[in-house]
What does this fold into?
Amino acid sequence: MDFENVTAALAALSNTEERLGISHHTATPNINAVAEMMATIRRVMLPGFFDIERASDVSRLHHVGVDIEHIARLVRQQVAYSLIFAGRHDCPERCSEADDITKQFVEALPAVRDLLLTDAEAVMLNDPAVSNINEVLLSYPVITVMLHYRVANTLHRLGVPVLPRIITEMAHSATGIDIHPAATIGHHFAIDHGTGVVIGGTAVVGNHVMLYQGVTLGARNFERDDEGHPVDVPRHPILEDRVVVYSNTSILGRVTIGHDSIIGGNVWLTRDVPPHSVIVQGKPIERPTFTGGAGI
Amino acid sequence: MDFENVTAALAALSNTEERLGISHHTATPNINAVAEMMATIRRVMLPGFFDIERASDVSRLHHVGVDIEHIARLVRQQVAYSLIFAGRHDCPERCSEADDITKQFVEALPAVRDLLLTDAEAVMLNDPAVSNINEVLLSYPVITVMLHYRVANTLHRLGVPVLPRIITEMAHSATGIDIHPAATIGHHFAIDHGTGVVIGGTAVVGNHVMLYQGVTLGARNFERDDEGHPVDVPRHPILEDRVVVYSNTSILGRVTIGHDSIIGGNVWLTRDVPPHSVIVQGKPIERPTFTGGAGI
Amino acid sequence: MDFENVTAALAALSNTEERLGISHHTATPNINAVAEMMATIRRVMLPGFFDIERASDVSRLHHVGVDIEHIARLVRQQVAYSLIFAGRHDCPERCSEADDITKQFVEALPAVRDLLLTDAEAVMLNDPAVSNINEVLLSYPVITVMLHYRVANTLHRLGVPVLPRIITEMAHSATGIDIHPAATIGHHFAIDHGTGVVIGGTAVVGNHVMLYQGVTLGARNFERDDEGHPVDVPRHPILEDRVVVYSNTSILGRVTIGHDSIIGGNVWLTRDVPPHSVIVQGKPIERPTFTGGAGI
Amino acid sequence: MDFENVTAALAALSNTEERLGISHHTATPNINAVAEMMATIRRVMLPGFFDIERASDVSRLHHVGVDIEHIARLVRQQVAYSLIFAGRHDCPERCSEADDITKQFVEALPAVRDLLLTDAEAVMLNDPAVSNINEVLLSYPVITVMLHYRVANTLHRLGVPVLPRIITEMAHSATGIDIHPAATIGHHFAIDHGTGVVIGGTAVVGNHVMLYQGVTLGARNFERDDEGHPVDVPRHPILEDRVVVYSNTSILGRVTIGHDSIIGGNVWLTRDVPPHSVIVQGKPIERPTFTGGAGI
Amino acid sequence: MDFENVTAALAALSNTEERLGISHHTATPNINAVAEMMATIRRVMLPGFFDIERASDVSRLHHVGVDIEHIARLVRQQVAYSLIFAGRHDCPERCSEADDITKQFVEALPAVRDLLLTDAEAVMLNDPAVSNINEVLLSYPVITVMLHYRVANTLHRLGVPVLPRIITEMAHSATGIDIHPAATIGHHFAIDHGTGVVIGGTAVVGNHVMLYQGVTLGARNFERDDEGHPVDVPRHPILEDRVVVYSNTSILGRVTIGHDSIIGGNVWLTRDVPPHSVIVQGKPIERPTFTGGAGI
Amino acid sequence: MDFENVTAALAALSNTEERLGISHHTATPNINAVAEMMATIRRVMLPGFFDIERASDVSRLHHVGVDIEHIARLVRQQVAYSLIFAGRHDCPERCSEADDITKQFVEALPAVRDLLLTDAEAVMLNDPAVSNINEVLLSYPVITVMLHYRVANTLHRLGVPVLPRIITEMAHSATGIDIHPAATIGHHFAIDHGTGVVIGGTAVVGNHVMLYQGVTLGARNFERDDEGHPVDVPRHPILEDRVVVYSNTSILGRVTIGHDSIIGGNVWLTRDVPPHSVIVQGKPIERPTFTGGAGI
It folds into this structure.
């Protein structure tokens, strides 16, 4: 096949695009390596749940030892790529910073695991269909989401750019739950079903909070600086302890939902709510006559 | 790299966590084997739609024969692992139970396929963008969802624990549609777009029902037993024949939506509705003045 | 294992199903080939973002040349399969039509890329959490969606059946955003979070439009022809330039949302709206007393 | 890295080389497809020896049916490529010729298998270390060689160019045994160890012949035509029934080794030998004094 | 394609072949699992030579621990399959026998490794082209051969059928060196180049022996029992310590080559040789006139 | 399974072995990367012979450009590893040396290709079974061997340690032909069949030389230095132009075979031979009576 204009297309596509500040030459974190990193972290945190071959009691220590070495190698590599991608460092400097971050990350893994198990416990306590925690750990999407969020949040707090977002996007794609890595979330956090849940980067969520599918903890609007760029200030809600939010509700802006409140489904909420509140949608309308056709 | 505290992390992570009843040593169903099982079932049910090499008329019987043997092997294996994982059986007993279940499952496959084709037919009849059923079978996510649900529901009714949930979660991850394997759903069931749809485990859905994206058939609340554990009683809606529910509406609790009713979008509905009803959201408010900024 | 009724199942499943017009013998587009086609197109459009090995300045032209040849080969093959699948052509005729389409598609790639970069720019300008466009291109799901939509829409406008839908479904599965390939969308189009967004096939979206998660641009109802089949006429909304729609709102039917309007979240909207309008949900109800239990 | 002369290398290497009649544009048989073809043929001929999953009695017919269809598809494809590669045909003509060859090849498979089993039987009868035929079929390299030779010879006799040689070279690489596909070999043919065995294309080997490692049945010289090209005439030995040839012996030229003869090892033999002969190497020399050093 | 006689071929090929005692239903050792087993054993014996990621000093113990567990699992599985294949056991009995063998095999690994390193040392001491032992361990085929032989011989001495032969055949295919697993070979054994070397099952090789390519330590003939089956008695040579045999020499029968002897190349030797002997081939003949042509 | 002595085995195996100078911590060339490097070099040298997708005339330059970049990257990486493995360099110094070598290697590729094509031409001219050069390039093992040798020899002459040997060993394993990378071989070099051929590192082979299977150009003995280590001095034969050596002959020591000589098969030759000589093995012995049994 001879494409008459293929040469023009070739020339157009092989020109680098610099108008928008796109760079083609930097290192980038690699999605496959991040996926392997997360799979290895999951294996260390939930040993035996995803392996065909089961480690014996004798050999579990060896498996974890090998896995931690592998995790450290992958984390250090992807952190270094992220620092370069973000333009923060070039090679010589990055090494020691990536080493430090990796060291702190590995040391934090047991605490991350403890938090993750509180989330699983919360799910178990709030779902009548669950018979034991093993079933939750094996098959509930919220475990995937919280594993990714808690790892990403740890890296975010250690100052790693870009990589945390890639980690939470992997969970977003798999589960439909989009938690920004910078969000602050307490222990015993449960989400049921979860598709469509969005938690913004400056949201603050207390302990024992429960969300259902389609809940948004979002921004109402955002300020722009003198050059018209949006500014990254606190703009997402605060949910205090033991708040429950039902499906498809949007809570927007830097509002505070007081502890022990219940927010019903399909609500659009942009103001503060005192503790122990119960909020539901206005009454739906019943149309007296059926007008035919498939629609309404 | 020498991690000063890596030994501590290693010790912490290689300790099994028994506080919450987590077991590390049992067999578990394996996600990759389940994926292969479902792909083989799909090939038997929709022959020629997903294969590069097309079977001739002469050899179709051979292909199906080989596939059924492979399905039986995988189902028996994963059912056995599920029985062990759920603590219901150890090896010798499990064999005959897994054998019985597998036998009944294979015998049920033609009926499952007939139901699945009614679903495809319903989609075709309700989507103006569709030109023929082959297009639906090839590319519509609802086919993936209903294949997984109908297989999972069959296994659930045969008494298999855990595995049905894994099967529906696979479809949930791929499509954003979360149908509990214990839900009861009639023939000619259609979902359009579907992301965010949730159908709870005690929901009962009639024939010729149509749902749009974001619809929840959920629980309003749940009872707890004396020890505070939630109890698995009927708590999700009943939708009678020919009900249509539009996008992002939540129907919660053990309510009944009478046949031939239409429920509009973005409604929060927690009460019974008689047949032939039409329900829509209360009127939105038009704010008289535009206040500037990107938000509202 | 001997299945007593396995022979019956085998016979039932190896019979082709012709009742519904299902054909088993035609060619079908292949999902794996389409995935490879899209990955190669992405590499040509966003060079260096997803590769482990980085091309030098000298060799970038060679890489793009090899990739374009590979894209052309895959597009031609899958277009031909799609034409056959849709019953529009058999082999000899199809060749020249598939060749023509492929030629025009390759020539259109630079323009598609320019549009895609306006979308990335729009995201960057509307998200306070973004520091530069490279981060958007690397990790935001909207890039995946718009890459797939803009490629699928190009193929749709060239008259290719089935394949465009497969391409947008791949993005739908990965992101929860469901844009019909026939929809018309202007430049600088941004979606944030996006899970649950649905844009119907006859929707018309202007320039600089912004949508949040869960927004539906859907049909209110549809006409049927004399035989009861739904008819494919304009039935989805028109959004003029600079419209913003917040999370979980449904806009249904052939209504027009005037330019510079803002539609709040969780609204059910089925009527025209003039330019510069601001629309929000009716006020939620605050229930005075808390009734206990986990529900509401 | 900037290679100063890389442009020159690039130009030199991307020029096609036509001096020697090398063509770059024709179709070629593909080694991976041939490997898959041979693996499938082996599975049909020796069912159960190389599979992890064992077919039941019920399903063996289905497995063989699927495998034969796959073999036919691969054979037809590779035969067509071979005909094109050899310049014998272009596409339209080739189809029917490749179809005919494939049909005859599939029909010949049972006879090929019967011959192969006589070879296995002969090995078993001549190796004191063997306990049963299953062990031979599972692990003896001569089975690989004879499977490849007998398939290649069948294709050669059906007039297929190039492909037979590729098939025997695969076995040559795996076992060190190089049998030309055009050679004529009777039933019950055994080779022990075999590395270094060479059997030329015009060799004729009777029934119940046994060779050891390193035996050459080669050409002594060859005639050239007026243009200096070698001519393909009978130039390799004839071994009559029940001949045994020991290790590392070379028999060269169109000589006849009479039936029931034994040729000892390390012999260089270029003349006819009557039936029932026994031929051994001339006596080695014993050097009276040891001269030191590691050599001789 | 319709094959007229394909049904006949199908029937012929799906009939099991029982004439020769071929069994289709037993378990068989699996070549891929054996390959993985050998790769893991090699990694444990030669750590760091074949891995991309290098273990730190801290983690080497963990790596070896994980590898040994994996080796034990694979060995036990393949030993069990071999016992079944050989008809020696069915499932319940086999378990404990396979367990015992596996236990003894793992305990023997350090001794096997010590022997293997003496072989590498012997190669280094006899090849002027070698600069250090690491080069030998990394790239010399004799290391592959001796690793496989010494592992296979260990399993053979533990009573495992079939599997040892599969292990040595893997090395035979890769290197052209065919050592029977039952052969007895001392320490510091070296082979240079090696293609075509054959060492029979009852051969006895002392310490510090060196062989070159093409050397056969074979049988001259073999006895048959009353039913005509060959009998497995000592029939291969004995080479005492420090014997060197040059290329392509065949030593056949139960003869003894005395210690410190040197046997030249291309010799056919079927008698005992006293210690310190030097044996070479009879003088070649120089033909006085050149007769033209390419041959001789 | 509890291995009583597994801890001892573990300890023994995880101790590094330093007695023999084995190092565990250095970088090593990686066999898989070398295999990919050689496959890419082959594709550049013989374009279209081993690819399923054929490059068009327009895109051949692009393919070669991409391949050369890939080759350069792999060569530089493996050369650097080899320099480290051989203890010649650590990281900073190695970079520039590896860069220089890579640059010279890429520049040498066209010349290497020209030589390789003379070898193919020589094979074609000496094999009556060949119809054209494409068949040789596609399927003759000598092409594999000479490609590997000529690449390895180029790297050897550029001073690269270890890697050349790995490259020739790959060909040795695939073909049974063992050519040392340091050997000197002229143009138009042909080997037929080839299994068992050995060419030592100090051998010098002229132009238009032809060898048959099993030919050894080896060392007769070797000198040792004062510490008993063998010394790497010229010790292999010199074959002048147009020499032919028949199968299984061993020519040993620093002897010279004069131009235009023919050496018959199975000869053991350790002395100089003048030009135009013809040498054959001494006459075999015919034993007058057949003594029965299977042997001789």
Q: What stands out?
A: The CA atoms of residues 41 and 71 of chain A lie 7 Å apart. Chain A touches chain E through 14 residues (CB under 8 Å). The first helix of chain A runs from residue 6 to 14. Chain A has seven helices and 15 strands.
